[in-house]
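Re: your question about Family 10 glycosylhydrolase

S., sorry for the slow reply, the queue was backed up all week. Below is exactly what I fed in.
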Amino acid sequence: MKFLRTWLTPLLILIMFSSATGQVGAASSRDITIYLDGVSLASDTAPYIKPKENVTMVPLRVISEGLGASINWSQAAKSVTIIKDGNTIVLRIGNKTAQVNDSLIGLDVSVEIVSGRTMVPLRFVSEQLGLNVEWNQKLQTINLTTNHDVIDPPGNEQPGTTPPVTEEPPITGGNKAELRGAWISTVFNLDWPSKASSGKIETQKNEYIKQLDQLQSMGLNAVFVQVRPSADAIYPSNLVPWTSFLTGTAGKDPGYDALRFMIEETHRRGMEFHAWFNPFRASTGIETSILPENHVTKMHPDWIVKFESTLYINPGIPEARQHIIDVIMEVVEKYDIDGVHLDDYFYPTGETASKKFNDDSTYKTYNYNQISNKGDWRRDNINDFVRDLGQSIHGAKPNVSYGISPFGVWRNKATDPTGSNTKAGITAYDNYYADVRTWIQNGWVDYVAPQLYWSLSRNEVRYDILADWWASEVKGTNVKLYIGHAPYKLGTSEVGWNSASEIINELKYNETIPEIKGSIFFSAKDLLKNPLGLIPLLQSYFGS
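Result:
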């Protein structure tokens, strides 16, 4: 969701640059210019090409900061850690492998330090952070785009040319009663509000109104808005501070209740508003001095665990879990929301033998049930949280829907015979400690929305195999199944995402499974970019 999940759970793939007519030759540092969405990226260390390997090396910091990734440099380990959307990537100087969550992937070229800057293979970064890349051999320019529409850098325009238009046949499908939603991320200003609108009330309101109208015009009838990006709030709260993503300053009052405004505008259009909470992330960075005094990291430092460059609220502490429930219930009781929605950020992924989420003392102190396996204890903590939150919500407002969007693979069949026939590098059960099956079987949630962010042709994690598996899990229960789709992957080099018809084909497949009651798309901004012409296909399919 995490682009979040944005973006969503991308896999690390190493690729190299070559021109359309042959290999990229060696070029001097001053010859290469990088553009991000048409804007030149300045750097005191210029990109360069490794001629033997034909790999373009770029400064990591320039690109990653532009996309909101969290970076941590370890001088002792000579390594850089990138964290984004639940994925953790570790690159080490001189090491031709990269650690991605729990997997090691080979690199053609190792990370290098040049003029004090960490240089990495460009396509490595672009694949991980959702960038498209265009190399211009003649102009020695690299054009990076965060959407799927190519933006030409200066001097690369081709006037008089018109891209071919492919006629698509009319597509119809979908059930008018089904849920058709979009995730709207507020963390890092990914979907709303824009960074440019920081502190500008009317601009933020107009951005949301425009976004809502555009989503509805596609045929969508619900939004899942991130109201708690990181132990903070987009609304006035007695328990947590204002988020920095409204004003640029954590704890600063933006001058209006953004949540109430968004709910009213959403309901005015007859759409559902689901309040999306990130439960256990305390801070997207480790610097707490910039956080207000009523932030959880200041109020309860004993609840906080640092892992990589992110701070987490320890799920193993009962009082900490209850605090999060209290925060969510404040919204349930004060606002006319249609649902409470949680993403899959429970325990962080990416632990290794030498790099652990430090909850040993918590395990000893709060292991009331004497659970011998720490993994089982962690899952028990999350189970308690999921159950208790559901009871609180339904006790206060029985009509408020309560659901969770877990990682798309519960467990692989190779690990558990009852798991899906997949080969995912991480799983909800083993890495996030989310035992979704238990939630479903006990009826603790009203729905699950697994993030099936893979194509129908991705053999390791095939969409249809996973959709069938999740449908079998909810069959015979009162738990609904929605599917999380990945329009953000359209136009990327991952298998199956070279046509917008991939999304439509997934929706058509959903029609064959009665247990699937709707879809949610990650994320709003990616839909609005109309990747590969998706919008008219959705409008045709939904009959909007």
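The first helix runs from residue 60 to 67. Residues 2-30, 147-172 have pLDDT under 50 and may be disordered.

Happy to talk it through on Thursday.
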